[in-house]
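Example record used in the benchmark description.
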Amino acid sequence: MELFKKYKYPLLSGLASVILACFILSYGFFKTLFVLIFAVLGAGVGFYLQQKGLFK
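Model output (structure tokens):
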């Protein structure tokens, strides 16, 4: 567990890169980019609504 805590960010970014590469190889660059854009927009809306206190 100490090893994971020490190298948490490199491991997570490596895993995210592998997943992104699999999506690009499977679906193509523009479809993957489309999904990523909507994921970022959805996360932004969720963060905004949480900051406004809508879910409390």
